[in-house]
Write a structure and sequence with these properties.
The structure holds 2 protein chains of 2 kinds. Chain A contains 47 helices and no strands. Chain A is mainly alpha-helical. In chain A, helix 19 runs antiparallel to helix 22, helix 26 runs antiparallel to helix 27 and helix 38 runs antiparallel to helix 39. The radius of gyration of chain A is 72 Å and the shape is rod-shaped. By secondary structure, chain B is mainly alpha-helical. Helix content of chain B is 70%, strand content 2%. The radius of gyration of chain B is 19 Å and the shape is globular. The interface between A and B is large, with 25 and 48 residues.
């Protein structure tokens, strides 16, 4: 019975392999026999094609047998009885099978069929159809449980009819018979016979079983070959398939295939010699399902807890086929093997290998299709963060363990954000190992490496912003400050996800400081970049609570660098920060910002803005810091002072004075107040606001008497006093200046000016003192000295002090005579003037001498005085000064005319009678006439000056005198002098 | 006799009728535009003597003008100035008030204003010989002899027979510029004009003497005496100057 079942099973497999519909083994046999019956076309009954939808009636085998028996008995032709008999034997066999199928099994069921076939064989020893009959007989024996007889018949069949159509099956059934009886060598041989027949219905099964035979013989290498060959047979036509799993197979074939694979694994595992194993695998390299073989073996090892072997198999494959799709999966599988085995270091190593081999943009990754890439990415997105986190945590622990944690290490989010669950257990082991002698920096760099991989591989991944931030953290911890800054800024500003942005942006700014501390050569560049980063942070994260402080620092930096406009802008942003308006911001911050604005504005020469903001700071200062307040006040005052200076430079003294004055009001206690008041006074001077100038400057002198600038006030006040015509005060200032002046030239100038001012003030006494002082002390420059002497002449004249006046007139003449050629026209003029005045004195003396009796004596005195006068006027004439020449000429003429008149009008002797008196008067006229003639002559000479254009008062006076002396000639006056009567 | 003197001699008879009609009794004011208080008919307004001119002014204006001259002679300068300025404002076409404003400012030693008004007067009436003369006098008194000479010459351009101009110019040349020969020319012209004025009245009035009353006869007689005196003085001036001129030539 067992043999029958096996037989049926084999049939089922055959049917399945041949892609036929699933039929019972009996049906298979029927179909086989039907083929046997139709040997030639002539043997075929007429073909009656039923209608397509016609249901054919089931064939009743018993009725059919009766028909064939009837046919046999009716047959007269012996040659035609053989097919009928053969058919009857087949029907008997079929009937026996039907009964088995219907559970009517009983011993000797197939006896009829066996007998039938045996009879046939007896009558047809050389008939080619004997092979089929033998086959049926073998079958009947087998069905009848007579396996050995069946085998014998089959051996006869293959011996006699080795090339017959049924020989392959016969070999196969012989192989099965031997395999079942443990004769693996025989089975191997018969299976080989089937295989040698080439592809056929039993070919694949033979291959499969042949492998099994090898296996049973413990010839594992052969078994592997055979199983592989079996597989090849199963998947023939699918050579282009990627792997076995992707081939669409019937489940039974799939089962056989899987069994082959498993057996290959078992065979490999049985080799126990790695060299043989690898050699075997090498031979199979060309198989498209080679990966399945490796995978199968690895899994087999894993199932048997041979973790290392499993991992090695994967490793072999990866080494051998690094660019095959399966490689990355095997690496993942290897990781799982290690994890399952609890091999932490191997897990880590495998993961690192995975990342290094299959990371995005690597050779492997780049050459995959999208689906593979997607799978790869999924794995990488898990593994890379794990590795990064692992090293990051390791680095932190390592650093902590050596007690070097410092302020640089800020709490990162790595542990919070990234779970390293898969390496959790192994991590702890690893950390313990590295705690003592580790290099934190190396681990941070390692972590950074993985963060970088993740970022570059998955730039748009949702976790990338976090990775970017952690990369920066790692780099910073590793001391790679420049790179850390770059990474922080990428994390801060590149991604839409802002979870880490602000933190990263702020960290970047802080890292610039660290970079500076380790970089002496490029501090300025770093600082510039830091400022840019601060600016970017504050503009990007304007609502971040750190922004105002950063802006303030930024403003301070700008200010320090001289970029005042930027400094002001940044500081104004602090002041205008929304939270500031809600009074949520630190008041000190606002104050500092205002200070930056003020200072920057000051340095940037926007003094109005500076003043405004210093004022705000002062308003906001509670007065607790007196020193600070004082300093602020000084700056505040300075900003106003600068405005004043600007106005002054712009030639706007009114505005300048206004600003200087403001300091006195708003910052009277500032250091600069003293200068402000001084400058206010001077500005008022320039603005010609003399009263205010005087007020500020005199107040300055009162308030700050010991200030060095007091010495400078004199000139300013002197000017102002002169402008308001306070001549005396002006003179006093100038006099003080003169006394305090060390330069002699300057002293002389001031002294002269003081004298003039005293003169203007009407203080003749002081004027005389100063002019006299000058005239005595400063003989040079001579022209000024002459002016001083002339001033004394005039002042004494006005004072009626003729004696002192004459002293100075004579001194003028004498000095002029002494200086020689250096005399100027003005000096000559003054000398001529002085000379004329002395001549006038002589003239007055001359005029005062009356011709009285005795006329001789008085006339003699008169003539003597005449000579003096004449000489004096001639002296005056000698200076050649036009004005005094005409004057002298006129007076000379008048002197003679005077003598002529005096003679005519002289006292007459009393004792003269009328005649004598007449004679006397004639005599007088004769005496007087020449003098009159002389007078006329000189006057006429004088008036001739007019012919040359000189028509001064003395020429005109000569004309007037001549009108009297010689009226016929000179009394000629134009008409209409007083009015013109014509109206038109 | 020089050609110039001959021309003058021939010109005088031609001018006389006009001079007499215009000037009436004050022969020295023979300019054609001199207005006289006497000798004007009873018209309510005065008529400009200028050719092609039609200036007519109210008598009130003329009275005011005469009043101003009175004040001027009395040295009541501000009052005179006030009136003259008023007239000038009403009748800017009259030059007489303007000349006198120049005189007032001159007396007040406001020379710039004085010159302004003298020039203004000449601008208003470029035929006003008296204005030229008065301006020349102003210039002469300030030693600006060349400028004075120009003004006199302008006056002569207007009226070469203006006797005052010849005399004044002769003074200028003789006394203030030493140009004796030039002075002699104008002294002699002056003398010619004086002598022309001293001709019998009948000739001067075109022979119409029968209607003259005794008073007029007496006045004319006195005038002739004055003229004779002037002729005499002028002759002396000429003699004296010729002598000095000759002496200068000899020297």
């Amino acid at each position: 019975m067992l043999a029958m079942i096996r037989f049926l099973a084999v049939l089922v497999m055959i049917v399945g392999i041949s892609s036929c519909a699933i039929v019972t083994p009996i049906k298979v046999m029927l179909s086989t026999t039907s083929v046997e019956k139709q040997q030639t076309l002539a043997d075929l009954p007429p073909d009656i094609v039923p209608a397509q939808d016609e249901v054919l009636p089931a064939t009743d085998l018993q009725q059919l047998r009766r028909l064939y028996v009837h046919a046999l008995h009716s047959s007269a032709d012996g040659s035609s009885s053989f097919p009928i008999k053969k058919r009857l034997a087949a029907i008997d066999l079929e009937l026996a099978e039907s009964e088995i199928a219907e559970g009517l099994e009983q011993t000797g069921m197939f006896d009829d069929a066996i007998n039938s076939y045996q009879k046939l064989l007896e009558n047809s020893s050389g008939d080619p159809a004997v092979a089929g009959t033998l086959y049926q007989l073998a079958k009947a024996y087998e069905l009848n449980g007579e396996l050995d007889r069946s085998a014998r018949v089959l051996r006869e069949l293959v011996t006699r009819f080795g090339d017959s159509d049924v020989s392959a099956e016969a070999y196969f059934r012989l192989a099965e018979y031997n395999f079942g009886s443990g004769s693996y060598r025989e089975a191997d041989r018969y299976y080989s016979n089937v295989i040698d027949k080439g592809p056929g219905k039993f070919y694949e099964n033979a291959m499969y079983m042949h492998a099994w035979s090898q296996f049973k013989k413990t010839n594992y290498e052969k078994a592997i070959e055979s199983f592989v060959a079996a597989i090849d047979g199963l998947v023939v036509g699918h050579r282009s398939a990627k792997d076995l799993q992707s081939i669409p197979l019937d489940s039974s074939v799939r089962a056989m295939l899987n069994d082959c694979l498993k057996m290959i694994s078992v065979s490999f595992s049985s080799l126990n010699d790695i060299e043989t194993l690898t050699k075997s695998f090498t031979r199979l390299d060309g198989k498209f399902y080679i990966a399945d073989l490796y995978d199968g073996l690895a899994k087999y090892y894993l199932e048997n807890s041979r973790y290392s072997d499993s991992a090695k198999i994967y490793e072999y494959f990866i080494d051998r086929f690094p660019l095959r799709d399966e490689s990355f999966r095997f690496r993942l599988a290897q990781i799982q093997v290690f994890q399952q085995a609890g091999f932490a270091s191997e897990v880590l190593q495998a993961k690192e290998s995975f990342v290094e081999e299959y990371s995005p943009n690597g050779q492997f990754w780049s050459t995959r299709d999208d689906l593979i890439k997607e799978d790869l990415d999924d794995s990488l997105k898990l593994i890379i963060p794990e590795l990064a986190s692992y090293y990051h945590t390791l680095a932190q622990r390592s650093r902590a363990s050596v007690g070097k944690q410092n302020n640089v290490g800020r709490k990162t989010k790595s542990n919070d954000k990234i779970g390293a669950s898969e390496m959790k257990d192994s991590d702890s082991i690893e950390h313990d190992n590295v705690a003592d002698n580790s290099d934190p920096q190396r681990y941070f760099l390692r972590a950074a490496h993985y963060y970088s991989l993740y970022i570059s591989g998955f730039p748009n991944d949702r976790k990338t912003p976090e990775m970017a931030f952690l990369l920066a953290e790692s780099q910073m911890e590793a001391g790679q400050f420049a790179k850390a800054i770059e990474s922080y800024e990428i994390a801060a500003y590149r991604y839409d996800d802002r979870s880490f942005s602000a933190e990263a942006g702020y960290a970047a700014i802080l890292t610039y400081d660290k970079l500076s501390s380790f970089n002496d050569s490029d501090i300025e560049t770093i600082q510039v970049k830091k400022m840019a980063s601060m600016q970017r942070f504050s503009s990007t994260f304007s609502s971040d609570k750190r922004s105002p402080l950063l802006l303030l620092q930024l403003a301070q930096e700008f200010s320090k660098n001289g970029d005042f406009r930027q400094a002001i802008s940044a500081a104004e942003s602090v002041v205008a920060w929304p939270q500031n308006n809600n009074r949520l911001m630190d008041a000190g911050l606002t104050r500092s910002a205002l200070l930056v604005i003020a200072q920057s504005a000051f340095d940037g020469e926007d003094y109005v803005l500076a003043e405004l903001n210093y004022g705000k700071v002062l308003d906001a200062t509670d007065g607790t810091g007196q020193l600070q307040t004082t300093d602020l006040l000084d700056r505040y005052a300075a900003s106003i002072y600068k405005q004043a200076e600007q106005a002054r430079d712009e030639k706007d003294p009114v505005r300048a004075a206004h600003h200087f004055d403001r300091i006195l009001v708003v910052a009277p206690d500032s250091k600069i107040r003293i200068s402000a008041q001084f400058e206010a006074g001077n500005s008022y001077l320039k603005a010609q606001n003399w009263p205010l100038a005087i007020e500020r400057l005199t107040d300055f002198r009162r308030r700050f008497p010991s200030d060095p600038m007091v010495a400078l006030l004199g000139s300013s006040l002197a000017v102002a006093y002169q402008k308001v015509e306070a001549w005396g005060l002006a003179a006093a200032e100038v006099r003080v200046m003169s006394r305090g002046e060390s330069d002699s030239v300057r002293t002389a100038q001031l002294l002269f000016l003081a004298a003039e001012l005293y003169e203007k003030s009407g203080d003749s006494k002081r004027a005389i003192i100063e002019f006299r002082d000058y005239a005595h002390r400063f003989p040079t420059p001579v022209d000024i000295n002459f002016e001083a002497m002339n001033k004394l002449n005039e002042l004494y004249r006005n004072a009626g002090d003729s004696v002192k006046r004459r002293f100075w007139l004579r001194k003028i003449i004498k000095t002029q005579a002494n200086i020689g050629d250096v005399g100027t026209a003005r000096i000559n003029y003054l000398a001529a003037m002085a000379s004329s005045l002395l001549a006038e004195d002589a003239n007055n003396t001359y005029k005062g001498i009356k011709l009285t009796l005795p006329i001789k004596d008085s006339l003699s005195a008169k003539k003597a005085a005449l000579n003096v006068v004449i000489n004096r006027y001639r002296d005056t004439l000698s200076y050649g000064v036009a004005e005094y020449m005409t004057l002298s000429s006129f007076h000379l003429a008048e002197v003679y005319a005077q003598l002529s008149r005096d003679l005519i009008e002289s006292e007459r002797p009393d004792q003269l009678d009328e005649l004598a008196l007449e004679q006397y008067e004639l005599l007088l006229e004769e005496q007087a006439f020449p003098f009159e003639e002389k007078a006329i002559e000189i006057h006429e000479q004088n008036i001739r000056n007019s012919w040359n254009g000189v028509f001064d008062r003395w020429v005109q006076a000569s004309f007037s005198s001549l009108e009297v002396l010689l009226p016929l000639r000179y009394e000629k006056r134009e008409n209409d002098r007083d009015s013109v009567e014509g109206i038109f | 006799m020089s050609i110039y003197a001959m021309i003058c001699r021939w010109m005088v008879p031609l001018l006389m009728p006009f001079l007499v009609i215009s000037c009436g009794t004050l022969l020295h004011q023979q300019s054609p535009y001199v207005v006289l208080k006497n000798g004007v008919d009873s018209h309510e307004s005065l008529k400009s003597p200028y050719p092609n001119s039609d200036i007519r002014i109210d008598e009130k204006i003329n009275d005011d003008f005469l009043l101003a001259l009175e004040y001027l002679r009395e040295q009541r300068l501000e009052r005179a100035k006030e009136i003259l300025l008023s007239i000038h404002k009403q009748h800017g076409e009259l030059s007489g008030p303007v000349v006198n404003l120049g005189i007032i400012f001159e007396k007040q030693e406001i020379n710039e204003q004085a010159e302004y008004y003298f020039n203004k007067a000449i601008e208003i009436n470029s035929l006003n010989v008296a204005a030229y003369n008065r301006y020349a006098l102003h210039l002469r008194e300030r030693g600006r002899f060349d400028e004075a000479e120009k003004q006199y010459n302008k006056a002569l351009d207007v009226s070469n027979s203006d006797i005052d101009t010849h005399r004044n110019l002769a003074f200028l040349y003789e006394l203030y510029m030493g140009r004796f020969e030039d002075a002699l020319v104008h002294y002699r012209q002056y003398l010619v004009l004086l002598k022309a004025n001293s001709e019998p009245l009948g000739i001067a009035r075109g022979g119409n003497t029968s209607d003259a009353n005794e008073g007029e006869k007496s006045g004319l007689k006195n005038t002739n005496i004055e003229i004779d005196k002037k002729i005499h003085v002028a002759n002396n001036w000429i003699i004296d100057l010729e002598r000095r001129a000759n002496r200068g030539k000899v020297q």
